[in-house]
Amino acid sequence: MVFIFKERLLHLLHCQLPNGSIRHLLELDPDLSQLYSISFSTLQSLLHLDPSSKKRFSEQFYTMDMNKLLSLYHSNNIAVITYRDEEYPEQLKEVYDPPLVLFARGDTALLKRPSLAIVGARKADDYAKRSIRLLLPPLLQKGFIIISGLARGTDSIAHQQTMMMGGKTIGVLGGGFFHLYPPENKTLAEEMSKHHLLLSEYPPIWKPKKWFFPMRNRIISGLAKGTVIIQANIKSGSLITADFALDEGREVFAVPGPIDSPLSEGTNRLIKQGAKLVSSGEDILEELLF
Fold first, then answer.
1. Cα(265)–Cα(252) distance, rounded to whole angstroms?
2. Fewer Cβ neighbours under 10 Å: the N or C end of the chain?
3. What pLDDT, on a 0 to 100 scale, did the predictor assign at position 1?
4. Do residues 60 and 117 share a domain?
5. Inter-helix orientation angle 66-75/2-14, to 10°
């Protein structure tokens, strides 16, 4: 029964339905036992679809070969974790619009360990690298998993430095595993999938889209006890992660920077607004270990 539910939930997800639409159906049919027995018009009505979504859904619902897709995922060592599975992180259920499904490659046991998110500018400079090197050792010694978004700049540095120091790291993607972005991080992602963990709420066959990345940030902050912003300009996506963390009741930390650097504008503003200024890993541990 568990497998049947998982397969049916995946079928709906692959039809590009919003989580909210699927949740409407789950409220009435928690096990999706009637998914293939009710009329299609009734199904569309229960999903609360608008006209454009109805057209796309009707095209995909009947052409999706889930057996083929599940076989493809299995052969690529991709695990599927639904919100009802034991492996699903409890803290992630507290975020706005929690993912119904997580796709995972690597060590899913890392999801049960305490973690900290580190994010920042894609154009991060040597100051970001030095800051991360300074912050990480005491955090890793206490067993914290480092979470980031496998993006250029700060994210990549956070993953790489964690691995170099013998720690464990989780990368949350803004698209499917088969369409890794940015492509230059393919080697890093492969290493992480073998010894660490990659996560995505998007099916592996989906290509990344612009609006996937801001939504991805709620998972980064939602998995972590706190979020550290290293460098960020005033319009940085990492500030979205900080906002999600605040909404989720998690700690937000910021590394201060030179007042004449655009990459410091976002972090310095966060500090003015109440984020904790940090200059060492111990500053972070003071808030997280209580």
1. 16
2. C
3. 55
4. no
5. 100
| Residues 180 and 40 placed together within one structural domain of the fold | no
**What pLDDT is stored for residue 2 in this prediction?**
61
pLDDT at 51: 79
Sign of CA dihedral 53, 20, 206, 8: negative
Instruction: Judge whether 121 and 102 are in contact, CB under 8 Å.
Output: no
Which amino acid belongs to residue 178? F
Query: What is each CA distance from 50 to 40, 45, 53, in whole angstroms?
Result: 15, 9, 5
Q: Please tell me whether residues 139 and 215 are part of one structural domain.
A: yes
In the chain, which residues have pLDDT < 50?
Answer: none
- Which CATH number goes with the domain that contains 272? 3.40.50.450
Nearest CA to 169 out of 183, 189, 148 is that of: 148
Instruction: Give residue-wise pLDDT tens across range 4-45.
Output: 899 999 999 999 998 999 999 999 999 999 999 999 889 988
Structural domain total, the chain: 2
Instruction: Please indicate, yes or no, if residue 78 is contained in any of the structural domains.
Output: no
- SS3 string, the chain, reads CHHHHHHHHHHHHHCCCCHHHHHHHHHHCCCCCCCCCCCHHHHHHHCCCCHHHHHHHHHHHCCCCHHHHHHHHHHCCCEEEECCCCCCCHHHHHCCCCCCEEEEEECHHHHHCCEEEEECCCCCCHHHHHHHHHHHHHHHHCCCEEEECCCCCHHHHHHHHHHHCCCCEEEECCCCHHHCCCHHHHHHHHHHHHHCEEEECCCCCCCCCCCHHHHHHHHHHHHCCEEEECCCCCCCCHHHHHHHHHHCCCEEEECCCCCCCHHHHHHHHHHHCCCEECCCHHHHHHHHCC
Q: How far apart are CA 206 and CA 198, in angstroms?
A: 15
